[in-house]
Amino acid sequence: MHLPRGVRARLAGALVLLVAVTAAVLGVGATIFVDARLHQQTLADAANQATFDLTVIVPGRQLPDHPTQDDIARSGLIDTFRQRGVETVVDLGDGTTVKSNDELEGLLQRLPADVTARVGRGELAYAWLDIAGVPRLVVGGLAPGGGPAFYFVRKVDAIQAAIDQLRLALLIGSLVLVGLALLTARILARGILAPVEKAGETAERIERGDLLARVPVTSHDEFGTWADRFNRMADTLSETIRRLERAQHQNRRFVADVSHELRTPLTALVAEASIVGEHLDGLPPESRRAAEMLVGDVGRLRTLVEELMELSRFDADAETVALERVDLGKLIETVRSTRSPKARFAPPAEPVVVDADPRRLERILGNFLDNAREHAADADVEIAVESRDDDIVIAVSDRGPGVPPDRLEMIFDRFTKIDPSRSGGSSGLGLAIAAEHAALMGGYLQAMNREDGGLRLELVLPRDVAGTLRGSDGTAT
Amino acid sequence: MDARILLVEDDPSIREVTAIGLRNAGFTVETADDGRAGIERFEAADFDLVLLDVMLPRLDGLEVARAIRKRSTVPIVMLTARADTIDVVVGLEAGADDYVRKPFEVPELVARVRAALRRVGQRDDDAASDLRLGPLVIDLAGRTVRREDGEGEIPLTRTEFDLLVDLARHPGQVLARDTLLDRIWGYDYLGDSRLVDVAVGRLRAKIEADPASPELILTVRGAGYKAAR
Fold first, then answer.
1. How confident is the model at residue A148 (pLDDT cuts 50, 70, 90)?
2. Distance of residue A416 Cα from the nearest chain B Cα, in angstroms
3. Helices then strands, each counted (H, E), chain A
4. N or C: which end of chain A has fewer CB within 10 A?
5. A302 lies in which domain range?
6. Is pLDDT above 70 for B125?
7. Does any domain span residue A101?
8. What is the DSSP string of A165-183?
9. Where is B6: in which H helix or E strand?
10. Nearest-CB residue to B21 (from A267, A275, A334)
């Protein structure tokens, strides 16, 4: 589940970045443009007004050629301009000035030199200045006829306010856009990822064995094509698996049928051989040995057919487990004394009781002991019960030659004969059968060579067999 | 021993060699090769024991066992091809007393037949008194069981009767399945404990008021059975 989060985050990141960069570029551009336009507009208005004032209003007041401060005051010009929101500084040319407002003290000194110079030459000139913390536009010009220089000062903080408002609007707009981008990213991601997640679920179902699971093909885009291809692959796979299963089923069916068909003649053979075996002494010498061999070989054939039938029952899943409380010490002692009296077994001090199927335990232990008898004929055999974590281990150890390490893993495979020259009447199925019985009880077998020589076979059973078999039809009586 | 045995088996080789083996052991053997013939033979003469193959043409061994059980307590030993639960339990529930798994060696079969016959021959020495288990009155001499409230005789097979007597003689004492197998069926060791379970089930069905929650014959988990005190 790592991928979807990654894709979602990357998609959202990319969209937000794109929107943020776009908004920033547009915002800065718009701010600069509007700022310039507003200044330009304000300046044009101020220049027109100044030209009008200097050429119409000022001459209308009939000032003398070299007016004094009193002349200016009497003319009422300052008040006229102030009523329009324009402050005025008049440079009388003799080093004195008339100011409409004390804030304007020293204005002329603060103006750039080229502004006063150009005003002196009779041109209009302007400058942007901060006075008393407020941005202002100063436009200067000479009264007609070489009169005093008028500097008109107006506040332009409205420009800044407009720009600030614009910036705020742009910021809010950008935030809305980023939000929209996030939302879009989510919707897009869901659209892209939903089929991916569906495909993931499908793959998981197939993994769990539901070979019929398919990815829904809901679109004609690249993903639809992919889903179609995936489904075709799943079709091919499940078809192959079905074919293999059918072949395996037929194979097992065949083995089951063959061993079943063999049973009737085998039953006759076993009964016949048992009668012949009782009367060997009465047979003429020419045929006695052959009759003896016949009896032995019928026994071998019987073992083989019965073990094949036992295995084919496992293959057909025809086996059920009947759990009972089993005292392992008692059960092992019974099997030991009847199947392999020479084996040694020290019963555990405390009774070890598990829920298990006693007949299966007897079968496994019996097959372990048969194996020891065949491969370590006269060697010591030892049976032990041990506790290991959550498991109970029943181990049969012999002092025989052991098993070559490369064959150790195959020892529980069908028809594996550890040492063909020693296997005697063994079918090579005994340990495979034991492994099936163990698996039915939720346990398993393992084999290892002992350090001091010999083979050790272990049956590992979960202490809580019933819990391990949860959901099976195991019953306790 | 001149006991008469009816052998019902469809495969000619198995039928013939089994008959030879039983005759060698001193039994008188009659044979039948399918289920109907088996029932006809059984009705035509007296037999001390019936050996019955499970898979028979015309009428299978289970049907034959049920038919025989309706009119006789003669010991029935089934010959089963499979020793798994279905065949064994179904066979025992059809009224068989014991089973021998195919393939078998003749001495093994003869031993099972002798054990089944021996039980029939056994009569209790102290048959004078009746045994009681709850409302049941067990007449050892007459080998009958009835309820004390006077209702008629409860029909039990030999195996069921022997099992009931063995348990009723030791009220409150737990008898392990192996012990019962040894005492009732004559197995020396490692018999099939399902024989006991199925027989107890059939017995309960006949004597308990509610077989699902038995009050006379109780199961002791992991140990065996005991009769109520």
1. confident
2. 25
3. 14, 13
4. N
5. 238-314
6. no
7. no
8. HHHHHHHHHHHHHHHHHHH
9. strand B4-8
10. A275
